[in-house]
């Protein structure tokens, strides 16, 4: 596949970039600062330095792509932010201009109670985490709403639980529109594998994919 990955210098984005190359995909890795990429990825021909908040810069980055992966997230801690909303707006606008349809974006499970949640998650963990990160989750919820209403885009929203670093475990569990039981954590590398699998899975289009270890 021909892929564009936004946020390729972040933890999940780097894992997705590395795994996509391993699978033999043709990848454009969009970053704001190439120096933040690992040494072995920094000078590859597919690295594109561009501002994801500028739809005019997004359009050529997604032109002719089979799928676009957004691994962007905020680094503001608990502070108010519009990173997710602004980047989603720009990516969708750029994709429309380029005629590119397939989009996968990373969300989170904490702001979303689900019938599959166990009692501890439903009554304690998710409400507590949602209060602590109320401002960045407000941005995330707005971005998810924006993506879900882009009916001309073949979107999949990917919702992982708490992310962990480390090598891939090699497995993950997936639930479409419902969280799998005991969804606690997932390694970024396994989340990257899940996103790449989903990118080529038409059954996940216009669905929320809950992924966990």
TrEMBL record:
Say which domain of life the source belongs to. Answer: Bacteria
Q: Which CDD domains match?
A: BVR-B_like_SDR_a
Q: Where are the transmembrane segments?
A: none
Give the range the annotation lists for the signal sequence.
Answer: none
**SUPFAM superfamilies membership:** NAD(P)-binding Rossmann-fold domains
Which residue numbers delimit the NAD(P)-binding domain? 7-202
One of this protein's Pfam families, by short name? NAD_binding_10
Q: What is this protein called?
A: NAD(P)-dependent oxidoreductase
Name its species.
Actinomadura gamaensis
């Amino acid at each position: 596949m021909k892929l564009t990955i936004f946020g390729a210098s972040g933890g999940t984005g780097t894992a997705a970039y590395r795994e996509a190359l391993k699978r033999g995909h043709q990848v454009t890795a969009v970053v704001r600062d190439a120096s933040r990429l690992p040494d072995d990825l920094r000078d590859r021909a597919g690295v594109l330095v561009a501002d994801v908040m500028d739809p005019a810069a997004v359009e050529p980055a997604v032109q002719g792509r089979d799928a676009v992966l957004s691994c962007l997230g905020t680094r503001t801690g608990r502070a108010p932010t519009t990173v997710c909303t602004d980047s989603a707006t720009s990516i969708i606008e750029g994709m429309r201009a380029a005629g590119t349809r397939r989009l996968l974006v990373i969300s989170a499970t904490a702001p979303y109670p689900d019938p599959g949640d166990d009692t501890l998650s439903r009554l304690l963990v998710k409400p507590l985490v949602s209060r602590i990160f109320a401002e960045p989750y407000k941005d995330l919820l707005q971005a998810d709403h924006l993506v879900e209403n882009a009916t001309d885009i073949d979107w999949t929203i990917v919702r992982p639980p708490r992310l962990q670093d480390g090598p891939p475990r090699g497995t993950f569990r997936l639930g479409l529109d419902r969280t799998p039981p005991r969804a606690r954590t997932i390694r970024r590398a396994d989340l990257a594998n899940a996103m790449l699998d989903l990118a080529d899975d038409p059954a996940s289009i216009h669905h929320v994919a809950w992924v966990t270890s």
